[in-house]
Every structure is written in structure tokens, then in C-alpha cells.
Q: What sequence folds into this?
């Protein structure tokens, strides 16, 4: 069967890498004689592929949060209406919520569907039960599931088994992103250009790069991109006192020209290819808060494995970053451009890829999803709210279907439900990185400095008090390492005979839990003790080491050692105390 029309369903597809990929695909479909129809939410209006005059129709609808029965019915109606009104021959979707909708529509209308996975997060960030549904009722019935990196393809082979998975790299328009544009630039700005959305995924890497750039004496940073965390980033810049160091341009559609206005570029994924194609030095920003270094000919293939995000590469420390910045002129930009032209250029490649797409399009009967949808509609009211968290949906509808599909899977499904119920909230790694993000314009302390040391042995009687002089240089968190060589002369102990308590410089009481953000100490209910650790002494000399991580701008004022439930007349001898500070 010849497929001459496609409905592409777009959700959360604002200006960015997904949008750019779809622009190439849309043009390639049209060039192949396939009429393109688009169904999307409000954000689609911003995208160049939606304003393409050769697109047959663009319909805007409220498609978000398709996780209730009513919303699924509503969205499915939009999809089916467009297919039937325009005699569309296949469906193509780019978002997990739309994968499910596409699979239902495919079965009801007897036409094939295909999907593209845009990142590992598509497997991991949503409700685990949603992925169970996709794995069992959607992926195996798609004519084609495309992935954009070898890493994603490998992971998808586990998360989406029994599926026609194919790798299709991100591509770049090497004619648009070319070094020729640089000839029109008279004076290059010495600042560096970040091209990135300012959202949860990209935020930690943005923050770390700005910190490194400032401390490496790069003259300034300009950001082309927008997102929901712009105000958060501006707040961090204000707290660090470097508001004027960063200029915000907002979302731009002239990146191919803009990159040549600045000395170098920073970004991730597609941005790396675009800058490399333009023969500009480009630094890769890590998703979880690190800086990965520069694109070079000798790391090109390693970076390509994860779609040029460097997720599997170590983060640079500040010294390594400064070293790479000083050697940026040594990067062979001509060779990088040649490597991109060979394997990642849109020229002819999109036509080839889309031609392959069309050969895979064959409708696959999926009665299970039809029954699943019919039962969802029948039990709409008892399901109540989100289907992926509904006990009725999980423990009755899906369970019954799984039993009928394969009676041997009953035990496995029960174990899966039990695992979900006991797993707690689902982990989203970027939320951890955002929580810890801050911009350090200077080291908090003199790295490795010994701020107290005493080898004067003494017996612990009424307590030992170690007063520390001011040591903080900047309030960005630090680590304290406390080393003690000590012993008790008593041979048998059921409890720890000595306690170490730490007093911070603060007007608040020691027992105030909001006082200090610290790890490595416990907080006693006894306000006279405050933050503490037991010292499990032995009846021979032993060195104890304690690492204390202070995560705010608090500073330790005093360290106290005292007997703790020691025996009467017990002698405790402290031979050495040393306190050392480190930057985190």
C-alpha cells in the first residue's frame, strides 16, 4: 500500500531540538509526495515546521495531560476526526501520552502508526505503570519506533522489547550552519554563547558552565533560549553577585547566524552538531550539572553514542576546564565539520531516512488495546482520575487482560504491582541536580587548609573545647575533616564513652533544625549538645576521621569533646586533634 498522507501529533514541541528534527522530517515527507497534517498544542505555533506553507493543515487543540479517561476520549476524537476527514494513511507521534492515543486510533481505524523516542527520560520520567502499558500494548504494535542515539537504542531494546527499533541520528542542516556566515561578521564578541532551553533538563549544566566561565575569566555569557527556570537562574546570578555577567536573548530563530557573533558556543545534543558544522568551538553541558569539555575529532564518536550530551563521560573540574579553554585554538574545526558532513548532514539523509520509514509502514492488529480502551470507557467513573494510578485500572482491567493474554504472566504481573506499591515516589534525576545548583564565584575556603592542629596530649576530664578562627571566604558550602587520635583505658564498653559536638556561628539555638544544612552529624534533642557524633573509642590508640559537609553558608565556631556515659573514674586520653577544610 502506498502511504500518501500522515498525521503528525505534536505535544510539548516548542522551539528546540525536537522541533528542528521535525522540521527536517516534515520537509522530507512532503518532498516524497506525502501530504502532512499536524495536530498539536499551543506551543506548536512557535515552531517553523508548523508555519511551513506546504503543510496541508495545522490543528491546535488542548492535548496536554492525557492521563484520564475523559481526556483520552477527547484527544482520540481529535485524532480520528482529522484522519477520517482527510483520508490520512498513517499516524506519527512524538510524545509518550500520544503514543497511547496513536495506538488506539491505529487499531480503530486500521491504519499503521510510528513513533520517535526523544531521550532516555521518555522511558524513565513518567509513571512506571504508564511504561508497562506502552511496553505491552503499544510499542510491539508500532510499525516503527525510531531512536536518535546508540545509547537510547540500546536502552529501548530492554524497555521496549519485541519492537521494530531503528536508529536514526539527529541531523543538521550543514548548508544553513556553515562557516561562510562568519565572513559577514566584522567584530566577534569575546563573550561565549549558550544555546539552550532554560528548563529542568538543561538547568544544572547551564549553572555549572556559567560558574566555570566566570572563574576562567571568560568576558561574559550570552544565552539564546527561554524556559520555565529563567527566574530561578536570575536568582542564582543575583545571589552570586554576577547579574551583569549574563545576557538573556530569549528564544531565537537565527542561531545559524548568531553563533558567528561570539567567540565560542556551549550547549548539548543538537546544538553541538550545529556549532561544529559552523566550525565554532563548542563546549558540552552535562544534563546533571557538569561540564563535559569540548567537541574534538578524537572524542566525536564517544559523544555521538549519547547524542552529544556526554552523559557517560566524566565532568571537568575547574582546572581542567581552564586548561581546555586555553587550548581551544588547537581544536581541528575543519575535521569536525568534515565528520558532520559525512554522517550527520541533512543533505539527502532525511530523504533517505523518510524513504525507509515508508517501507516499514504496515498495520498490525492490536485487539488488546481495543479491549483495553473499551473497558476504560465502560469503567470511566470507577477509575476516577489518572488511569496510571487508579487501582481499578491496574488491579482489575489491566490485570484481567494480562491473564487472558498469557495466563503464565499472572504471577509476574502481581509481582510488578507489588514492586510499584513498595517503591515510593519515582526518581527524577534532574530534580536532584536543580536542588543542589548554585554559582560559586570563589572557593569557600583555602582548599585543604589545616585550621587547627594540636599534638599536645591531654586527658579528657571536664571536656576539651577547640575554638576555630574565621575560615570561610565565600558562602557556598564546604567540607570539614576532623581527625582525632584517642583511646580509653577501660577495656569493656557497651556504649560510646566520648561524644563530639559541633557549634556553628549563629544566633539561633543549636537544636533549631532549620539552622544548618549539614551532613555527617546528627541533631540531638538536647539543645546543649546540638549537632554531634559519637566517638567509639577503643582501649588502644586509634585514629578517627569524621567528614562534615556544610551545604549552606554556615561556619563552625567550636568543636567540643566530652565524656558520654563513660564509667566512673574512666580515663580517656586524646593524643591529637586536627581540623582541615575543603571545598565541596
A:
Amino acid at each position: 500500500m502506498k502511504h500518501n498522507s500522515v498525521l503528525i501529533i505534536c505535544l510539548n514541541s516548542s522551539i528546540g531540538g525536537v522541533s528542528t528534527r521535525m522540521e527536517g522530517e516534515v520537509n522530507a515527507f512532503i518532498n516524497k509526495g506525502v501530504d502532512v497534517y499536524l495536530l498539536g498544542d499551543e506551543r506548536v505555533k512557535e515552531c517553523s515546521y508548523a508555519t511551513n506553507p506546504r503543510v496541508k493543515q495545522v490543528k491546535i487543540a488542548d492535548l496536554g495531560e492525557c492521563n484520564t479517561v475523559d481526556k483520552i476520549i477527547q484527544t482520540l476524537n481529535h485524532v480520528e476526526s482529522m484522519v477520517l476527514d482527510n483520508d490520512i494513511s498513517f499516524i506519527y507521534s512524538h510524545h509518550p501520552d500520544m503514543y497511547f492515543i496513536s495506538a488506539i486510533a491505529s487499531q480503530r481505524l486500521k491504519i499503521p502508526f510510528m513513533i520517535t523516542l526523544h531521550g532516555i527520560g521518555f522511558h524513565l520520567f513518567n509513571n512506571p505503570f504508564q511504561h508497562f502499558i506502552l511496553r505491552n500494548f503499544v510499542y510491539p504494535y508500532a510499525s516503527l519506533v525510531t531512536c536518535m542515539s546508540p545509547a537510547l537504542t540500546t536502552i529501548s531494546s530492554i524497555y521496549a522489547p519485541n519492537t521494530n527499533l531503528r536508529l536514526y541520528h539527529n541531523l543538521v542542516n550543514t548548508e544553513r550552519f556553515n562557516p561562510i556566515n562568519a565572513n559577514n561578521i566584522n567584530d566577534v564578541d569575546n563573550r561565549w554563547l549558550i544555546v539552550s532551553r532554560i528548563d529542568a533538563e538543561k538547568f544544572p549544566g547551564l549553572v555549572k558552565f556559567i560558574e566555570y566561565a566566570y572563574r576562567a575569566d571568560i568576558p561574559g555569557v550570552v544565552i539564546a533560549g527561554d524556559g520555565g527556570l529563567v527566574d530561578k537562574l536570575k536568582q542564582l546570578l543575583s545571589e552570586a553577585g554576577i547579574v551583569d555577567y549574563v545576557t538573556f536573548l530569549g528564544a531565537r530563530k537565527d542561531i545559524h547566524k548568531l553563533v558567528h557573533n561570539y567567540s565560542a558556543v556551549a550547549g548539548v545534543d543538537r546544538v553541538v552538531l550545529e556549532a561544529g558544522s559552523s566550525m565554532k568551538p563548542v563546549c558540552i553541558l552535562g544534563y546533571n550539572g557538569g561540564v563535559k569539555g569540548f567537541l574534538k575529532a578524537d572524542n566525536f564518536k564517544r559523544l555521538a553514542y549519547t547524542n552529544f550530551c556526554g552523559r557517560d563521560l566524566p565532568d571537568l573540574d575547574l582546572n581542567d576546564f581552564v586548561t581546555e579553554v586555553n587550548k581551544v585554538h588547537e581544536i581541528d574545526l575543519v575535521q569536525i565539520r568534515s565528520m558532520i558532513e559525512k554522517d550527520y548532514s541533512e543533505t539527502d539523509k532525511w530523504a533517505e531516512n523518510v524513504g525507509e520509514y515508508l517501507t516499514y509502514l504496515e498495520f498490525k492488529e492490536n485487539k488488546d488495546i481495543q479491549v483495553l480502551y473499551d473497558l476504560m470507557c465502560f469503567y470511566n467513573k470507577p477509575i476516577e482520575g489518572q488511569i496510571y494510578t487508579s487501582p481499578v485500572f491496574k488491579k482489575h482491567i489491566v490485570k484481567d487482560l494480562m491473564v487472558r493474554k498469557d495466563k503464565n504472566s499472572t504471577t509476574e504481573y502481581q509481582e510488578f504491582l507489588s514492586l510499584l506499591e513498595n517503591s515510593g515516589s519515582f526518581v527524577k534525576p534532574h530534580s536532584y541536580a536543580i536542588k543542589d545548583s548554585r554559582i560559586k564565584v570563589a572557593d569557600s575556603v583555602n582548599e585543604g587548609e589545616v585550621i587547627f592542629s594540636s599534638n599536645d596530649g591531654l586527658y579528657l576530664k571536664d571536656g576539651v573545647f577547640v575554638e576555630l578562627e574565621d575560615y570561610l571566604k565565600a558562602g557556598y558550602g564546604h567540607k570539614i575533616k576532623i581527625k582525632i587520635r584517642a583511646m580509653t583505658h577501660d577495656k569493656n564498653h557497651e556504649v560510646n564513652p566520648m561524644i563530639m559536638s559541633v557549634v556553628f556561628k549563629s544566633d539561633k539555638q543549636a537544636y533549631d533544625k532549620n539552622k544548618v544544612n549539614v551532613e555527617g552529624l546528627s541533631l540531638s534533642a538536647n539543645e546543649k549538645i546540638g549537632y554531634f557524633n559519637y566517638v567509639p573509642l577503643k582501649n588502644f590508640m586509634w585514629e578517627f576521621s569524621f567528614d562534615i559537609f556544610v551545604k549552606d553558608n554556615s561556619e563552625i565556631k567550636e568543636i567540643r569533646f566530652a565524656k558520654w556515659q563513660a564509667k566512673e573514674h574512666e580515663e580517656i586520653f586524646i593524643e591529637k586533634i586536627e581540623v582541615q577544610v575543603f571545598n565541596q
Observations:
- DSSP finds 19 helices and 24 strands in the chain.
